[in-house]
């Protein structure tokens, strides 16, 4: 590996050395409008005379000057353009005997209105206010390329290996197609499936929040987004693509995508099927396991490689670990009903079969003088079948009010099989315990969600009212079979024990939730606004879990069975103030939240009652230092309520050697978070720099306390601890290096975490320092070769 890296960098350096021997010329120019004023953000591009491909381009600065660097002597077509003005074109001879070529003043005239002229301009990009628009025709792609391949060629846009898109140094959170949602808000579905040759323009912009777009009052809550503007011939008619392949060891993949668009309708159908660990959809499309399955994986001894919880599958690096067979089918419909109503419907099916074989070797340090080792061999098979239907309807009642309604319906069927053999030994190699496990689980889940938002503006600018409500329901059924043979070795005080476990667990879990919010905004002075907000949310859960002993004529095990009803209610009221002046946007919020938890454990006829009152202030300040240079300061407080699973004192013995039991004395964790961000991007040099400093301090943090006996069996129980905090810093830098035809990317991370751990009732203060540095080079011209060379180094100290 070292030899390969050395050779690769040597080739890069050699390419750079050769580049130095080729004569290059810097082309300099000045652009003004018809009145003689400098034109900022005008685009100047040099095109090859033969095929009109881009050779180089520049963007004018505030003085109207542009520079196109390192151009080889030859004949080119120079085009200078600006929105609303006529494009300037001329044939340009770049001489070989000059280091710089200074052009005469270029004046862009007004666009002629007495006729229509069709040209074949390939202006690569234009900047209009905060939107950067790329002309897709100016960047060469292959016939079978998808949008993701096109994005990789656009200056200022980076596509990571996992499909994450960054534009101007910021992560893109949404990709629209002709301004409309495409399969919800998942960016990867559009970029991985739409053909690149269907795109006319790629528009990168800061998307404001829904409330800010409606009221016209910027609240600072923007996110980076991309809009794919399709070619006119693709807005009407049918287009699509089909890809299929077969290889050695019976590996195969296939993907199909077809679209039918017209003036008022967008219909897209896509499908895929492969066994090469590729998913063309996001983890949000998976429904994850919960309840007993979460406990099973938490206690499986796999060290947390599989993280489960919430409302979808979250498996460490996704389901690309192990051997994966995936199938997916999706349908997306956008329909415009005139100018006032829009409808979006999408259906998505995803099927996944994932097989993992792994070996784990771990050293567990109890103190400076005591440690033990564990070894585990595990096979697991996961199958998921998920159906999801989403809908979105917007009605623009008039210019002052609108109504938005969202709905979703999801059904999931999943199965899990796990076989494992593990053992724990002392540091001297003496066996303390061993286990053989074989667990199976089947689960059905049905869930729906409905929300509606009504907004209205008043005659006075800035005055608005927003009403929203949501309703959610989830029904879950699980069947779990646990089988294990556990051996506890003899100790000086205890004899050896061999214990067999065979249990059948049946669990049902019903969740009903509703909530509503009222938000009122009132101007109280010049560029000053006051907001009033009230939110109420209530969710109720009924869980029934019965555990039967199959070795005792399926006798009910009452101490492991659990029936409970949970009702959680919180009310939050707050006032906010917002100041907008020039480049500065400052907002402060003062919230009071009262929460109430009522838990009734029917299994042991006990109750859990908790009522908490919290003050939750926050502050957010945005400052635009200059064009594409921003500072963000944000302070936020939050409350993390313990779950009923963490509160109830009932043992979960899914893994008999690692038992989990709740703690009814837990209280909510209260956190303070302060973050400072700086972002800078230059459209002239395509250089970006961004830095983030973050600090978090938590009182009553919830951590797990472990008790380990002499046979190395463990009991885990959550407890509250004070004075835990975390600090982190991140710096990113990227710039093109034309001398070697590459782009340099540099990322540096540092984090410090101070927490508390309890082992055998001994309180340990733990400090962790993590540092990493990531350096990589990407070649700029990717028409023939797409290459990334780099290295990552990390250090961790505990």
Can you describe what's shown?
The chain is mainly beta. 7% of the residues lie in helices and 63% in strands. It is built from 7 helices and 41 strands. The strands form 4 sheets. The protein has a 26-stranded mixed sheet that branches. A 7-stranded mixed sheet has the order 9-10-14-15-13-12-11. Strands 1, 4, 7 and 8 form a 4-stranded mixed sheet that branches. The longest helix is centred in the N-terminal third of the chain and has 20 residues, at 2-21. The radius of gyration is 30 Å and the shape is globular. The model is unreliable at 1-5, 7-22, 114-121 and 281-319 (pLDDT under 50).
Largest sheet: 26 strands, mixed
Helix share, percent: under 10%
**pLDDT average, as an integer?**
81
What percentage of amino acids are in beta strands? over 45%
Low-confidence residue ranges: 1-5, 7-22, 114-121, 281-319
Distance between the termini: 29 Å
Rg from C-alpha positions? 30 Å
Structural class: mainly beta
Shape: globular
Number of helices: 7
DSSP strand tally: 41
């Amino acid at each position: 590996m070292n030899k390969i890296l050395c050779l690769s960098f040597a080739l890069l350096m050699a390419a750079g050395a050769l580049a130095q021997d080729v004569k290059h010329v810097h082309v300099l120019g000045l652009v003004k409008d018809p009145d003689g004023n400098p034109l900022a953000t005008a685009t100047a591009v040099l095109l090859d005379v033969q095929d009109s491909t881009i050779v180089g381009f520049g963007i004018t600065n505030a003085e109207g000057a542009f520079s196109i660097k390192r151009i080889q002597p030859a004949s080119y077509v120079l085009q200078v353009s600006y929105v609303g003005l006529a494009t300037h074109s001329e044939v340009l001879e770049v001489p070989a005997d000059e280091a710089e070529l200074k052009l005469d003043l270029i004046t862009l005239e007004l666009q002629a209105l007495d006729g229509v002229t069709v040209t074949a301009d390939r202006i690569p990009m234009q900047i209009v206010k905060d939107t950067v628009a790329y002309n897709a025709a100016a960047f060469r792609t292959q016939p079978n390329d998808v949008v993701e391949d096109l994005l990789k060629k656009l200056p200022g846009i980076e596509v990571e290996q996992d499909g994450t898109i960054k534009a101007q140094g910021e992560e893109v959170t949404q990709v629209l197609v002709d301004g409309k949602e495409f399969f919800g808000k998942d960016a990867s579905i559009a970029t991985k499936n739409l053909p690149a040759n269907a795109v006319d323009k790629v528009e990168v912009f800061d998307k404001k929040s829904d409330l800010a777009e409606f009221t016209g009052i910027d609240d600072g809550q923007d996110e980076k987004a991309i809009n794919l503007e399709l070619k006119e011939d693709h807005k009407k008619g049918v287009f699509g693509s089909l890809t299929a392949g077969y290889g050695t060891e019976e590996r195969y993949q296939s993907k199909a995508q077809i679209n039918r668009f017209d003036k008022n309708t967008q219909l897209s159908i896509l499908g895929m099927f492969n066994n090469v660990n590729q998913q063309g959809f996001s983890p949000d499309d998976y429904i994850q396991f919960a309840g007993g399955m979460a406990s099973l994986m938490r206690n499986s001894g796999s060290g947390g490689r599989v993280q489960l919880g919430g409302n979808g599958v979250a498996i460490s690096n996704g389901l690309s670990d192990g051997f994966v067979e995936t199938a997916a089918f999706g349908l997306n419909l956008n329909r415009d009903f005139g100018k006032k109503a829009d409808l979006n419907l999408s259906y998505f099916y995803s099927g996944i079969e994932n097989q993992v074989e792994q070996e784990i070797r771990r050293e567990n340090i109890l103190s400076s003088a005591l440690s033990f080792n564990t070894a585990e061999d595990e096979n697991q098979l996961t199958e998921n079948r998920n159906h999801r239907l989403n809908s979105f309807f917007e009605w623009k009642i008039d210019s002052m009010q609108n109504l938005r309604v969202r709905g979703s319906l999801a059904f999931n069927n999943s199965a899990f099989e796990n076989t494992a053999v593990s053992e724990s030994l002392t540091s001297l190699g003496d066996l303390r315990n061993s286990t053989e496990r074989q667990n199976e689980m089947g689960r059905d889940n049905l869930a729906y969600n409905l929300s509606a938002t009504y907004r209205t503006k008043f005659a006075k600018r800035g005055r608005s009212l927003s009403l929203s409500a949501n309703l959610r329901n989830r029904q879950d059924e699980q069947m779990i079979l646990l089988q294990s043979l556990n051996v506890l070795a003899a100790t000086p005080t205890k004899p050896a024990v061999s214990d067999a476990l065979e249990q059948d667990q049946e669990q049902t879990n019903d969740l009903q939730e509703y909530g509503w919010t009222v938000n009122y905004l009132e101007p109280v002075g010049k560029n000053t606004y006051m907001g009033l907000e009230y939110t109420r949310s209530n969710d109720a859960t009924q869980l029934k879990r019965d555990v039967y002993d199959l070795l005792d004529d399926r006798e009910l095990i009452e101490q492991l069975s659990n029936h409970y009803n949970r009702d959680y209610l919180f009310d939050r009221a707050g006032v906010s103030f917002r100041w907008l002046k020039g480049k500065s946007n400052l907002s402060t919020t003062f919230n009071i939240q009262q929460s109430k938890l009522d838990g009734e454990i029917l299994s042991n006829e006990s109750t859990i009652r908790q009522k908490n009152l919290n003050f939750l202030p926050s502050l957010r300040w945005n400052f635009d230092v200059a064009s594409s240079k921003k500072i963000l300061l944000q302070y936020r407080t939050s409350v993390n309520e313990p779950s009923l699973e963490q509160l109830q004192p009932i043992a979960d013995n899914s893994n008999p050697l690692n038992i989990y039991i709740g703690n009814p004395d837990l209280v909510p964790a209260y956190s303070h978070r302060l973050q400072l961000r700086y972002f800078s991007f230059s459209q002239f040099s395509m250089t970006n720099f961004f830095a983030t400093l973050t600090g978090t301090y938590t009182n009553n943090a919830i951590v797990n306390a472990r008790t380990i006996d002499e046979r190395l069996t463990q009991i885990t129980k959550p407890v509250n601890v004070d004075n835990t905090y975390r600090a982190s810093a991140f710096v990113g830098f990227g710039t093109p290096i034309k001398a070697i035809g590459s782009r340099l990317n540099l990322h540096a991370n540092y984090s410090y975490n101070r927490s508390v751990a309890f082992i055998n009732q001994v309180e340990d203060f733990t400090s962790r320092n993590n540092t990493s540095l990531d350096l990589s080079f990407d070649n700029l011209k990717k028409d023939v070769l797409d290459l990334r060379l780099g290295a990552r180094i990390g250090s961790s100290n505990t």
